[in-house]
Amino acid sequence: xxxxxxxxxxxxxxxxxxxxxxxxxxxxxxxxxxxxxxxxxxxxxxxxxxxxxxxxxxxxxxxxxxxxxxxxxxxxxxxxxxxxxxxxxxxxxxxxxxxxxxxxxxxxxxxxxxxxxxxxxxxxxxxxxxxxxxxxxxxxxxxxxxxxxxxxxxxxxxxxxxxxxxxxxxxxxxxxxxxxxxxxxxxxxxxxxxxxxxxxxxxxxxxxxxxxxxxxxxxxxxxxxxxxxxxxxxxxxxxxxxxxxxxxxxxxxxxxxxxxxxxxxxxxxxxxxxxxxxxxxxxxxxxxxxxxxxxxxxxxxxxxxxxxxxxxxxxxxxxxxxxxxxxxxxxxxxxxxxxxxxxxxxxxxxxxxxxxxxxxxxxxxxxxxxxxxxxxxxxxxxxxxxxxxxxxxxxxxxxxxxxxxxxxxxxxxxxxxxxxxxxxxxxxxxxxxxxxxxxxxxxx
Length: 444
Fold this sequence. Notes:
This protein is of the alpha+beta class. It folds into three domains: 2-88, no CATH class; 163-244, Immunoglobulin-like (Sandwich); 250-441, Jelly Rolls (Sandwich). It has helices at 2-19, 29-43, 49-55, 67-76, 82-88, 107-112, 130-158, 277-284; strands at 167-172, 179-186, 195-198, 206-208, 215-220, 224-232, 235-244, 250-254, 260-262, 273-275, 293-299, 310-318, 329-336, 340-347, 355-357, 362-364, 374-375, 381-388, 391-396, 399-405, 413-421, 424-433, 437-441. Helix 2 (29-43) crosses helix 4 (67-76) and helix 4 (67-76) crosses helix 5 (82-88).
């Protein structure tokens, strides 16, 4: 256990070095909230602020962290799990070996006392190098002054800032898509030249902004509930919500940097919502859709749906041919103000590429058996998701394929999204909370 404790200390030190947030002894609650978010973004495992505070010794706690917590910390550092971290970071007690000292006689001295030898020439008197000493002294004084100056700058930057003095807000310019958003911000209180705005949870959507500026604009091409972040010196200083809705169901061919929107007429089928291979060929100019995601979204408040207690039932299929899309797959997404739930389906031979987001954790098909999510897309598939009593249950064609805990709520339900790798069809949707309300759509 002592070695495990030493490994945990090493793990903490490596995390602190990777974050470069300064001395962890002065970390506050905001820092641990940001660390919790970063760990979740990288590992899809949610470690609470209280758990992280216990690990860093901010809260007295006698028990050693659970294996799940240790695996998450190791994964955050790039290791496979805690066992991998332990094997690659062996901690051993330091052994001090006493040095053997032999008294040796300088042969030159022995020669000097042998009769007949020439007398040893007397050394000149030692002269103290005053100029060298003075130069070294001045250099050390200058070095200390520089270190002191840098330390004072660091202390000034790490001094707690009243959140009320940090300005950060997002203003939409339209109720349609695409939507330009104006960010009004003021980060001058931090006296930093490293200021960024992140448009959502996706770190790739960060943009460097003027540290002394007041406004920054960005275009949002997709609907959703986003949490924009003002980041200074690699720390999230303030966040603001941004809700970009749709007017009913909308479809798009997802591609960067700009998607292709589909009209209501183009996604309306006979008894279903979807698109065909022929329409995609016409829109894209290619008969192969291996890396092409088609999305259908309805983003708005679902006020009668309780994110802690709901049932989603839907019938869908990926309608691409095997030649057009080698690994046919589909995702059913429930959007929340706090997180999302993603339930995937695919051809049986492609389940390795799947991943399930439970609203709490990410379950990766690379290291979990998700073969139960494989199906036959030549037939419509009936998918049912039930969230009740902090538990998520998923049924495929009336067969239970997943049961897992859901400790954290998704917040409020604010949207549904269907994603197909290639063409796809949605036949019906029923989203309900017992005793509160039901949303039903059959696309007739």
